[in-house]
Amino acid sequence: MNGVTVEVDGTGVAVPEGSSLLTAVRAAGVELPALCSDDRLSPAGSCRTCLVRVGGRVAAACVTPASPGMRVDTVGEEVARLRRDAVEVIVSALPPRALADGSPGELAHVCRAMGIGPEAARGAGGRGGDESHPYVHLDRDLCIACGRCVRMCSEVQGTFALTLVGRGGDTVVAPGTGGPWAESDCVACGGCVDTCPTGAISQPGPARGLTSAFHPQEARTRTTCGYCGVGCALDVIAHDGEVTAVLPARDGPVNRGHACVKGRFSHGFRTSPERLTRPLLRRDGVLEPVGWDEALAHVARGLRAAVDAGGPDSVAAISSARATNEENYLVQKFMRVVVGTNNVDNCSRLCHSPSAAGLTASFGLSGGTDSFDDVARSDCLLVVGANPVEAHPVVGARLLERVLHGAGLIVADPRAVGLALHADVHLRPRPGTNVALFHGLAHVLLAEGLTDEAFLRERATGLPELTELLVDYTPDRVTDITGVPAADLVAAARLYGRAERPAIVYGLGVTEHLHGTDGVRSLANLAILRGAVGTDRGHGVNPLRGQNNVQGASDMGALPDLLPGYGKVADPAVRARAEAVWGGPVPARPGLRIPDMFAAARAGDLRALWVIGEDVRATDPDTTRVAEALDACPLVVCNELFLSETARHADVVLPVASWLEKDGTFVNFDRRFQRVRPAVPPPGEARTDFDTVRAVAAAMGVDLRCPRPADALAECAALVPAFAGLSHGRLDREGAVPWPCPDPGRPGEAKLYTERFATPDGRAHLAAAPYLPPGERPDDAYPLVLVTGRRWAHYNSGSMTRRSGNLALDPVDLLDLHPDDAGRYGVRDGERVTVESRHGRARLVARVGDRTPPGQVFCSFHFPASGVNRLTSDVADTVTSCPEYKVTAVRVTPS
Ligand SMILES: Nc1nc2c(c(=O)[nH]1)N[C@H]1C(S)=C(S)[C@@H](COP(=O)(O)OP(=O)(O)OC[C@H]3O[C@@H](n4cnc5c(=O)[nH]c(N)nc54)[C@H](O)[C@@H]3O)O[C@H]1N2
Ligand SMILES: Nc1nc2c(c(=O)[nH]1)N[C@H]1C(S)=C(S)[C@@H](COP(=O)(O)OP(=O)(O)OC[C@H]3O[C@@H](n4cnc5c(=O)[nH]c(N)nc54)[C@H](O)[C@@H]3O)O[C@H]1N2
Ligand SMILES: [Mo]
Predict the structure, then answer these.
(1) Prediction pTM value
(2) Which atom from ligand 1 is nearest to the alpha carbon of 415?
(3) Domain named 4Fe-4S Mo/W bis-MGD-type: which ranges (predicted)?
């Protein structure tokens, strides 16, 4: 690190080059007020509370760069008085309640430190507030116009929703759209709440005015967010067993003090009156509360009866990517050791199983290739089929920040998603045509000599076959297939091809297709052609994994063909190792994937299904058929927080703890293990998934061992060399550790393949898969292509976000359609519409606009009652069975 040494009150202190004097002063341990400053933001220098004397003049420390040899005086009487005057002037305009006893927040802290009492606050107030938003309230009387919220919203969150209005002493923050906060562009990331030094912007309720920098240390629990796969580190503040606030951790490795509406605010579900608190058992067709012993005995008896009648393979489990690693580890161990089947799968099947298959085939391991910190240092980002601004907001914000600082951006998405508005090139392929698009880009890279020949020679295979295939993917032909103008294709290829350190980030727009695995592999080709993976000339290929622990659920072996650590269950040596650790035989035949489980149930071959935290009746495709399968299965057991669609029809429902209530670890999208800790107890009689699996095993007469989650991770680490260096103790000390991590004494590998790829021959494998059309195609009866995906305020089945203040932010499932199509089909904005496919019917509310191109419509699936997955088909990726959620032929009529 290049450093600068300055002298603060006579003591030398070294800070990184580019630091401000404020950083140097604080590094010297001197506390200075700095009310318009936040080290996550660019300095403003407007409040004059951080004045110091340097080189004979008075300067605001926050906007003065530290240069070598500077001598800073913070203690002189004059500067101390100037600082106090500045604070007093600010305080004098505020009403006394700004400094009332026990006020939280930075200003109150500063005043206490300077001995400025509430009597100094003499403002009349009366400017009113804005309490229209469920999570963010504005009290104008407390606003000191420091602008931190405005900079937070633009620089860190990238939403630009706030502005300062008015003049002089009347200046105050306001939503840029002018109206009430609730109708503004605010996405409730909480950044403004977190930086506000006075509580002018705060969250309602007991945590009013609390921010991550100024809250009591003792009452907090450090944990990892249980919504998406970003893996934000959060501090949960609890009082009397209730969550009062969730604050983003400043030292969170990915989030760095930021969060989104879900992790920060959407915890109201915990105390919903609909939360399950007792086990339920179906008697005479009705689910009735029973004691745990009775419920467990019923499950144990039912599983044993199924095995007796149809053999171990007539039982299956769907494990949860919402649950911890330790829970997933136990579920798969239970199925293999106690039941004796490999019929265990998780929602990675519906999501990024093509990433697992494709990345393993191309590079050797089933994970993203680079750390997100590296990706966020790239000079060119290729974001494909992902909408991180809504689905991974903290990642979206960091990517946008990078772009606003000059990185190139190519977005490939049929829709005008948030990042596309900032892109150098926005490619809008027809849904389902990615493989042709990627081949088109590769064609240009080859044709224009933008490949890394030495890398291709020394570290890759498959170039001759790919070169031959790419002859057919000229820009013009690719335009015909994808609809992307040839000039845009060439421009994108040049941007990616000429960048110094390009990175690829992608999502479900690549995987959830009939040829999703081919899509992943053809996308990986681009990084290989450029030598931008496993080298310092780029930052690889990185899937934005979806659920909080979908990477981990698969890492732990909740998969029908793979054991923990991705060893093939069909491989006798792999089985032998597991058998030695588990002390029992492991079945050799790979088990059923989720869609095959349903097919087996419909055929009468599946007699018992344990569904742990997945609402398959709402979120799997073609739910009419899923319902038939579940209804045909004699025993369906469901671990749930709520009576989901699946639980509602189950035979036994076990009430379980949520992520805020349990102990363990999650693995995030860039392969980091992080700790999950209980901040509050589960409600009523709810237990953790971990306990339920152990208890069912015990009821079947088997001790699964691993009494605590830490023991389960330790056992897994003993089994899997790539996890050997991981333990709860280590994670407690170090925070986040990425896998592979074979050694307890050495860091995990954040960036993969720097020496060799993990394929059998140590090389990266180019794939030469031809483009094939999607499974569903529009025709006269179903003329539109429906793409389904996410909205920012809700999460998947919506079971948790709909039971929180988020419902007020986004109350219905909307169908986006283009004005041309609205005109053609007689649909008006805001009107109810019926959407029909070849498989079923859904009811939604139309939103007319041009974010979706003509011929395509888009909706989310966050409200099971609207029936979106009755529309989707059972077409699935040919390699992994990942559903083609992104292409369904539909028609739309007003209803
Ligand atoms: N707010 C919120 N966040 C979430 C979730 C949530 O439900 N809500 N769910 C979590 C989960 S489980 C997951 S897996 C992730 C998913 O995160 P993403 O992968 O970002 O989510 P999607 O919105 O499903 O799809 C991404 C994009 O793919 C585009 N797309 C569709 N077809 C094609 C195509 O053929 N080619 C290209 N290039 N693009 C296409 C769509 O227009 C869409 O914008 O989000 C996680 N985060
Ligand atoms: N049309 C369409 N459908 C889709 C998709 C799409 O893009 N389009 N995306 C697909 C994708 S990528 C995914 S990942 C799936 C997600 O689909 P699901 O996994 O079904 O969705 P979630 O709402 O995340 O969670 C399922 C259930 O888990 C419960 N739950 C939460 N935490 C826990 C826990 O700790 N333990 C237990 N036992 N239960 C818990 C919740 O209450 C919820 O009912 O949806 C898929 N469905
Ligand atoms: Mo997902």
Answers:
(1) 0.96
(2) 42
(3) 218-274
